[in-house]
Amino acid sequence: MHTHAPLLAMALACLAIACSENAALPPREAHAPPFEFKLYLDQGGQVIPGTDVLIVRRPEHLEHVYELSLKENKEKPGHAQAWTIFSNLEGQFRGAGSYVAQQVYSLRCTAVELPDCVPKWSFIEELLGPVEGPGSRRLRQALADSFKETARREGMKSTLVMAVVNVLLTEGMMTSTLGKAATAESSAAAAEHRAVVEAPAVQAQRWAAGEGRAAAVGAEQLAVQSGSLGLAVEVSAMEARLVEAEAQEIGARQTGGVEKLAGQRPSLENPLPGGEADEALWRDYVSYWDQRYAELNNPAGPAEGVKPPLTWPGYQAFRTRFKKAMEFQVKVSALLRGEVKLPQGERKVLRGMKQPRTDANVGLNHEGSTSVTYADDLAVDEATLKSSEPRVESVSTKQRDFMKMSEDDARRQVTTDAEEALAKYGGEVEVRRRGHPLFERRVTVSRVHLVYDEALVPKGSAFRERMLNAAKRKGVELHFHHAP
Prior knowledge:
The chain has 484 residues and is an alpha/beta fold. It folds into three domains: 184 residues, no CATH class; 123 residues, no CATH class; 135 residues, no CATH class. Strands 5-4-1-2-3-6-7 form a seven-stranded mixed beta sheet, with helices on both faces. The N terminus is likely disordered.
């Protein structure tokens, strides 16, 4: 952007270009001086240079100007001046949304993920602060709408666009994760090796049957929020995990009778307690409920074991636990990436590998199966790639609360988790991730790891020793990871 651009426009450009920590923004004033138009407009009625940033740092002034600028107040004194100020702000936020989308989807950014190809959404949080009043929300809306319009025009995947917009409008900024997801998505469109691979016939059959569609609601947004997820393959992994977790959820569900169920349909306009405070989750719940109702209305649904929808409190609890589990997985993945850089003797998980490589959410296919399972992490010793039996290890992360379990209960839970990890990520598998050095090779997983959150396991050495032995008896190596 040019140096003669308004100060706010220059500041908003920091979303899309690598800015130094230059721009110390003026302090966000909770108690601004008495409002006067002359603080922001010159004698000719034009916005004074530099005051565009100042007013967004003064919430009381921003909301006053927005309220006065509305059409309903066009007869009130000061309406025209207020409209001049706010329309100037809104135009700059719209320009920023379009500019960011263009930068993220530019040819240079789809070719390689450069530092300035990752939007710094956290800057908006710093600039505007938490969503407070309708004026602040209107500016966020302008940014989100413009980003959405431009991103779709540029060809960005609709589900990703909506995930970005939902987070922008309802949960504040999420550091640079959204930008990474958008950049990754555009790269995936330009380079097939970043896309999920699934047999076309199987995929078509799965979607035609509507399998998992209700339970998978929110997968895109959860993938974005989890910190390192966002590629198409990772969204698919998130969908698969949501479907499985929802099917196993033991929380309260509504009545299974379709006729009675119809009278309990939730609506976006009338959120239940807690829905207004978490708009994004309430929208997910309404979508989940509607799709689950459609599945139950399908004659094949009940016959295939489709369960009634969770109640709203049950869905809140389910999604909270699920999100925490995904956050734990991201931390374990970061641990493994850190181990790659350590000498062999200092590693706790990737021992014995000369050139370890780890990838999260790698699709695996077992012979005779039509589905793809996603290993939380797959480790490969690149030094063995040319051999007939490359060294491959898989990692399964679980966030189980063992604090109130007896030793026998804990042993049984470990045994169950170990058996599940072996069935999903052990034995002979075909790697289904394009771009992976083992893509389409059938390999044998030499070791399966199971990782628990250490904070949820009693500290007693005897208790943990029994857990370790239970996993060992199943041929699985157990680890306790401290995840701050």
